[in-house]
Automatic annotation (TrEMBL):
GO terms for molecular function: ATP binding; ATP hydrolysis activity. Residues 5-230 form the ABC transporter domain. This is ABC transporter ATP-binding protein. It comes from the Bacteria. It holds the Pfam family ABC_tran. Keywords: ATP-binding, Nucleotide-binding. Transmembrane segments: none annotated. InterPro entries: AAA+_ATPase, ABC_transporter-like_ATP-bd, P-loop_NTPase.
Length: 307
């Protein structure tokens, strides 16, 4: 099956400033992809490249088997909701649906009307008078009714309160199940990503640090705790991502390709970690790189390709 997104050495620079550097990705179809990283990591740049809003400086990118925004047909396959879920303040909810029908050849009017009713939007209400959660639901409805193959969201829930955020994510999962669409969701909120995402891309310092299916990644990342000095020389196949030491104890987050970490390091306690711990370990490692030195992405290929 053709990957939804495939890139090789994808690079975007603004003058001398790198926004994205040598990103090599292959994202399978049917996933909800969590895109995470600190401000300035390159998340919005990657999404803008994916949607065809900007062009790369170097490298290649294909979305659904073609160059992004290469044709009207290609544009119809992708729906992009930028930060702050932009809608037209002076237009009513019904106006937005009519506009969506005029602009999108595969517009699903029945789906749009049903979702507007389900989330309690008043068709006569001006978008500028909607709450943040209601605007997010309207933007999601417009994107989904386009009937795309790929839905892209750039920080769609950052400004929402917890209840509105939960409602938005629930609606998103319902759309994924109904439309069999792939989603790329950029967010700082790791708990939300853990709830809905099954594929992960971690960016830091303009480079891909980690990518793969969430369960596969969690299976090979562990926390190892041992007496100070006992973990200084780990066997081959165990890579240290983050290390914290006290005078008595060492705590490591490692990637274990052996599958038998507890047997190889019997003196240590080995624990499973969650998505947040794993992501923070990679972001911490990237942040500790000497200023001005290149940040080398650890996993710039899908996990399957590393085995």
């Amino acid at each position: 099956m053709t990957p939804v997104l495939r890139s090789d050495g994808l690079t975007k620079r603004y003058g001398r400033r790198p926004a994205l550097t040598e990103a090599t990705l292959s994202i399978p179809a049917g996933r909800i992809v969590g895109l995470v990283g600190p401000n300035g990591a390159g998340k919005s740049t990657l999404l803008n490249l994916t949607s065809g809003i900007i062009a790369p400086t170097a490298g290649t990118i294909e979305v659904l088997g073609a160059r992004p925004a290469a044709s009207a047909t290609q544009l119809a396959k992708v729906a992009f909701v930028a930060q702050d879920t932009p809608v037209y303040a002076g237009l009513s909810v019904a106006d937005h649906l009519r506009l969506g029908a005029r602009l999108n050849p595969k517009w699903d009017a029945a789906l749009a009307r049903r979702r507007v009713e389900q989330v309690g939007l008043d068709p006569a209400q001006k978008a500028g008078r909607l709450s943040g959660g209601q605007r997010a639901q309207l933007a999601l409805t417009l994107a989904a009714a386009k009937r795309p193959q790929l839905l892209i969201f750039d920080e769609p829930v950052a400004a929402l309160d917890p209840l509105a955020r939960r409602a938005f994510l629930q609606s998103l999962m319902e759309f994924v199940a109904e439309l069999e669409v792939t989603v790329i969701l950029s967010s700082h909120l790791l708990a939300d990503l853990e709830r809905v995402c099954d594929h992960l891309v971690v960016l830091a310092g303009s480079r891909v640090q980690l990518v793969g299916d969430v369960e596969d990644l969690l299976d090979v990342h562990k926390r190892v705790i041992g007496a100070r000095g006992e973990l200084d020389a780990l066997p081959p196949g165990i890579e240290v991502i983050q290390a914290d030491h006290t005078t008595r104890q060492s705590t490591l987050v490692v990637r274990d390709t052996t599958g038998v970490l507890a047997q190889l390091v019997p003196a240590a306690d080995v624990e499973r970690i969650d998505l947040e711990d794993m992501v923070l370990a990679y972001l911490t490692r990237a942040a500790r790189v000497t200023a001005g030195a290149p940040i080398r992405g650890y996993a710039e290929q899908p996990l399957e390709a590393q085995r």
